[in-house]
Design brief:
mainly alpha; about 85% helix; elongated
């Protein structure tokens, strides 16, 4: 495997990780920001209040984008296995 092939494989792995991890993290970030603004406005300083909205936001994103995430991960795995087979891996 040449350096260019390795760089391409690593780049695609990083893009796949961002596609899969980005939406839930952004949903948790948005929910946490909204809850913290509400807490600062109302002066309620309860740390456990931020947990449930984040959990619900991440669950909603995972339920809505679950099929997209599974297909992205499946395509990435197939591409990786095809590269391994093309380079003579697997004995």
């Amino acid at each position: 495997m040449s350096e260019a092939d390795l760089a391409t494989a690593l780049r695609e792995a990083m893009l796949t990780a961002m596609k899969l991890g980005g939406p839930p993290l952004l949903a948790a970030l948005a929910a946490g920001l909204i809850v913290s603004v509400i807490q600062s406005v109302t002066q309620i300083n309860e740390s456990s209040l931020a947990f449930l909205p984040k959990l619900l936001a991440v669950a909603a994103v995972l339920s809505l984008l679950g099929p997209f995430m599974v297909s992205t991960l499946t395509d990435s795995a197939r591409t990786s296995f095809a590269r391994i087979a093309a380079h003579g891996g697997g004995g």
